[in-house]
User: Fold these one by one.
Assistant:
Number 1:
Amino acid sequence: MPLLKDTTLGIDFGTSNSAMSVRQGSGRARMIALEADAFTLPTALFFNTEDHRTHFGRDAVSQYLAGTEGRLMRSLKSLLGSALLQDKTAVHNKLVSYQDIISLFLRMLAQKARDELGGMPGRVVMGRPVHFVDGDEDRDQHAEDALRQAAVDAGFENVSFQFEPIAAALDYEQRIAHESLVLVVDIGGGTSDFTVVRLGPERMARADRGSDVLATTGVHVGGTDFDRRLSLDLLMPLLGFKHTGPAGREVPSRVFFDLSTWHLIQWLYSPRALRDAQNLRTDYADARLHARLMRVLHERLGHRMANTVEQAKIAASLADAEAPMALDWIEPGLHAAVTPEGLARFLAQPLEQVVACAQDCLQQAGISAQGLEAIYLTGGSSALRPLRHALKAAFPDTPQLEGDLFGGVAAGLAVSG
């Protein structure tokens, strides 16, 4: 298979969704279809124990939701920088590390790139958050190194990295007619990243854009954290979270936090975790709540609960109306709902962290909000209505512009190469 030296592949390996774009020579970047005609792919794998095949993306999620026997894995990017990354798990009767599973996902992307291009790209630029790990430079570097190794193991060559908000800015720059000072807001599944950058048609041709980037900041808060907050507030009480037992103490909470966190759910299905959950029975005054918890764990319904919350969050935000959550697959008649008011209330604390990080970016850049021409929004979670309201409250006079929420970073990565 030939190496296409004049071709740059941009890979946005996201916590929730992934995308790829390609740029040949000095041409325009174009997106690569990853699943049918879709340019984005849920970052999900399903290991089917019935046919011993590995499924990816929407296919993986649909296999799981259809009740096919197997294991679903999502939010693997969240493990980068964690000691859990090198832990091994059984997949198709073999023990493999979670880093190897990330490489397996990237190998699937490599095959799609080969099929599209007729060879392997000469350069690969992967996106990375400003911080994989907040406040720990060593772990942050280990996270980048691990992702680079996973990409090399998948068959990619000449792998480099670019901050995701800078990539989004470079994509936006292709469509503006005059010089602008912009705050790029990239809210993904796992992180919220910000860049204050000078953009413009005359700056595009510069080989070194370092002086145009005035500041970058990031915080490890994103869409999956919003999902966890909603799950803890709306669903986990139905299984016993904050339930007071016969001794007057609340049921130990760790199982509920893990069950609300995409990349930790799978650990709750181990024999030891099931025994620990069963042993919580004496901490419950209401046996029905414990029975619900055990049904979720024994029948491996945790990812279905997480998916239910995620979809209701999106629906409530888009429609600005109540989004019901039917839970009769746990117990007949069981239900909950996400309301716009509840969405704003439950997400207020994490959104405060996100907005504070955006304000810190401006402070580090040495400019005021009045000096900005626009706030450029990208990343799937930037579509959330409470997030946009919070940014409007913090920057009332700055217009918000929406980019390609799911493909902008990937396109900008190819441009940056």
Number 2:
Amino acid sequence: MRIVPLLAALVFCTPVLAGPKDVVRAYPAQKVHADTYVIHGPQGVPSVANQSFMNNPAWIITADGVVVIDPGSSVQAGRMVVEQLRKTTKKPVTHVFNTHVHGDHWLGNQAVLEVWPKATIIGHPDMIKQAKNGADAFWIKLMSDMTQGYTDGTRAEIPTVEASDGQEFKIGGKTFRIHSSTDAHSKTDLMIEMVEDRILFTGDNVLSRQVMNLRDGTFKGVMKATERALALNAKLYVPGHGKTGDRKFVEEHKAYFDTLMAEVRRMYDDGMSDFEMKPVLVDKLKAYRNWAEWETNLGPQISLAILEIEQE
């Protein structure tokens, strides 16, 4: 007779615990500032090897609860983030910020709401619009395809609160100021400034030692966002991918784009094609050749730079 309640328990547990693959392998959280933690995910694209986890989830412990920024790429990644978060505090998550529409940053929302269903999720209005118009299904399928089904069971929990440029959210004694754009990395981007602590969460507008995938964005927008990040003169910058640090890596990011755009413009004026430009740029940018996704994204960046020049 004991088997009946056991089976019933398994049935009711299934939606929450999907099986042996229900949680991404653990990555340690790093305390980067008082009450601020970041899990620095491995750099690269979603894969079977990384179980789809490759961004930088972060959280801030406030007087009233916890604010999470970008809880990861799937319910499985989000559950790992929740496990690491609970090692640092017993306070509940009250708010989640999603920096942009790319699913590796926000599909972990589901895991947060499994534990704290009253948490408020905040995003760019265009992110919310795109997610409701099919970007949610696109990213869920992409994550599943790239991980051979590891992320199956993930459900899109779309932000319900819009964040506008310059808006300030007062949460637990801390001020979260929004710096948003419509033409940068994804055209749905938020950078989130913690005013009192002088920390800037850049999302994917600024990466640390990684060549950016810019297929959904513009060079001009990203370069403007990078300049804006530097002008804020934060004490600490937390990128969407790569290691947290001071303004030095943001300046490196800017120097890379400045060099690339200047060289593409020069060669375009000389009548060169993209395939002729690439070996020149490989040499000019050789200081950056050890950056993540160098081989994958340099070529597409050259093509996009040409397109933007042609549209001037």
Number 3:
Amino acid sequence: MISIEFLVTSLVVVLIPGTGVLYTIATGLFIGKRASVVAALGCTLGILPALLASTLGLVALFHTSAIAF
């Protein structure tokens, strides 16, 4: 059973904006809408290599554990 403390902590972590969100909002407020869209695209493109690396690493871990068993 999941505790209420875990649920509250998870909710807080999910609701706090990350650095990419803060950067995109600040860019939109100070420079403009077009720059904000470019910043959002740049942040998204920056996440993709990390996503790919973590996915491949997880796949390698699952593959290795399947061989071990």
